[in-house]
Amino acid sequence: MFALTPRLTLRPGWLEDAPALARAIGHEAVVRRLARAPWPYALGDAEAFLSLPHTAADARFVIIERCAGYRLIGGIGLQRTDAGDHELGYWLTPDAWGRGYATEAARAVIDIARHALPVTRIAAYHHADNPASGHVLRKLGFVQTGRSQRHALAHGGLVEAIDFALDLDADAARNELAMPIAA
Q1: What whole-number distance in Å separates Cα of residue 2 and Cα of residue 62?
Q2: Which of 29, 89, 150, 176 could bridge to 161 as Cys pair (CB 3.0-4.6 Å)?
């Protein structure tokens, strides 16, 4: 699957993207906000991530900024949890923060979930010390559902997290004019 937004291309990551991925994510300020990324993040970590198997229903993308020479600036996707939920996760390289890219990319992934995948509810969370991510989730219509302790590999343990959910069925009923997309 691919998605185009006004400023971004979301596409599957390819092994050839490993150097650009390692550069984009390889900032302690990024990795410390993620659950499964190690610190320090090396080229081998990017290669291992990009080598993970994909299925036709996977919604896991690298984020390419088109207006600045097609530069890899982040990652976003839906992951099925052990509980069977779909969880939204995303990150951006620091010089892409504050431009609305996370919201723009997440809207595209939510549209993919709504129109091309069998998903009716999306969960998400952010570390409590990252309120900007909570702002993105609220702009997307996510509702806070509680607080939890989440494992964060780069922290070497648990961190406080704020949990959110988005009910796509209720959201679709409010937004009947949403345009379907191709996948």
Answers
A1: 10
A2: 150
Beta bridge partners of 143: 165
Rg, Å, the chain Cα set: 16
How far is C-alpha 138 from the geometric centre of its chain's CA atoms?
A: 15
What span, in angstroms and rounded, lies between the C-alpha atoms of 135 and 46? 28
The model carries a pTM of 0.90
The C-alpha atoms of residue 39 and residue 31 are separated, in whole angstroms, by: 7
Closest CA to 37 of 156, 125, 138: 156
What is the layout of strands, in order, in the sheet containing 121-127?
3-4, 8-11, 59-65, 71-80, 86-92, 121-127, 157-167, 143-152
| Percent of the chain at pLDDT exceeding 90 | 75
